[in-house]
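Obj.: predict assembly geometry.
Materials: sequence records (below).
Method: joint structure prediction, all chains together.
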Amino acid sequence: MATTKPRLSSFSRNLSAVSSSQTPGVKCGPNGTMFVSSGIADLDKILGGGFPLGSLVMVMEDAEAPHHMLLLRNFMSQGLVHGQPLLYASPSKDPRGFLGTLPSPASLKHDKSRDRESEQEKGLRIAWQYKKYMGENQPNFDSHRDNKQDYCNEFDLRKPLERHYFTRQRVNCVGIQDSKNLAALQEHCASFLAQHQRNDGSCALAGRIAIQSLCAPQCEHSNMDWEMLSFIKSLKGMVRSSNAVVVITFPPSLLSLSSTKRWQHMADTLLSVAAIPDEDKELAKLLSGYQDMVGLLNVHKVARLNTQVPFILEATTFSIKLQKRRFLVLECLNQAPVDGSSGSSYGTSGSCSGSSKAGTLDF
Amino acid sequence: MENQNLNLLDRALGLDGPSEPWPLSGRVVLIEDCVETSGSFVLHQLVKRSLSPTSSNVIIFVAFANPFSHYDRILRKLGCNLVTQRDNKRFIFFDMLMLRCPDEGKSSEGGLVLLYEKILKTICGLPGDKKDYVTIMIDDISLVEVAANGGSDYVLDFLHYCHALTSEFDCSLITLNHEDIYSSMERPTLILQMEYLADILIKAEPLSTGLATDVHGQLTVLNKGTSHRLGRSGNKIHNFHYKVKENTVEYFYPGSRV
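Observations (raw structure tokens):
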């Protein structure tokens, strides 16, 4: 009986090839997964393609800096630019107002000048930053012809997204501050995800859910540990069988250690952001380009849907920089050059020098 | 079993001996892992070994973490077709992803009691020859706790009942839990009891130097001796490194990559 059923080999790609050309903003990945962009090209590259549909992404916030908002904004904007419906939940009084802060895709001519600049920089920095450019082809010029069809847009943080993108049909905003528990939010998520059910063969429009600061103290549910865990578990179960991605940010400092670990285990992709102290002389000596850094991004876990092979990254800590104060980029941390004149090396991590002082960063 | 390529994990689990009786029969296996190193690959390997053509095991897989399609794709790459096995009634899949026991006290327990009854009913409903070779797998226990709204006592009761099945029906019980969730607790009752109950403890953790592309982590296998074999074998601890690939997992002693 079983032999008469057509068995798809694990290498069948017919379906994916069709869907990627028809659905903007969705790319096929390995093991039958499909990716949507995070809105940050560097992050997509680091994560091996983007956020897989059906996965749960968690971003651990840093109480000292709102960098998670940068990730959230780009994620939301990217979805709207591609016409992907969005459900946004936040503990603020006016969640809809947040949409006004979403960035718009950069204009075409600006992209070209940015790439030219980085080309020039390459020649000067080859000596110790060669790794950054090794194996990196930058044929980005051609694909920028039509902004809308790009898998990942470059967002200009200084230019707000045009209002026509967030019509009521496309964006649903939910406030979670005033509700007694998470039942209402769960209802919203359930009905949203029901519209994006994954049926074999068809690739309907992808959906995005962005939940900001889930355990924020102003919410009533913030001290109901098990309630929140239950919510995340059911959300994860629902999104698994749908063509959607859920991004949840949360401040781990407000949860117990044990709860934090539970949340981390439930995430498919786990990121964290950290603030960079201002005027830290130690760090300035250790890292190059320290002054331009806005914060740090750590990649703890990368989604492994339909596969058991872990995704091991060469580096897990990246610096968040704003190029020209407009464009979000992520860069590998690079050690500053050893100062030959003083005769002593103060590059610590990874070096064989015996007299190394402990660096604040381990990379 | 004799013809297959046995790896270090198989040997540590005692799967290198004769396949009848199934070496894990009547035994409780606990797989522990952490955020950095997932232990699911051990579960996949055990599924594959249990469903090998030379054995007549039936697996009741209670899934709280991933849907059937996920396991199907992974096991297919490992050389085991779960759809066929499901059709042949050798692989019974309980999808518990959306299980949520209702909040009010007694009913929290209710959901797990129903689950236990379902497992028991399934075992009793198996044909006579298959009844002796059941493996119950649960992935993963921390999500069972969430489903029970934090009622660890109910989860423990459920586990104790499943444990009773190992002596009643000679079935094996294989569970996975995340050790790092409990390590910060003052009284981590659940994990301690599970570790106590387990005959075999398999722990996946990163190397002290962190993660690397050619060594994904290390496995520590504690095999508490049984009295099934001729003479007691005593506790044995095995430790080795591993690298997980799509269609296999390589196990090797530190520094001895071949």
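Conclusions so far: The two ends of chain A are 55 Å apart (CA to CA).
To do: check interface contacts against the pulldown list.
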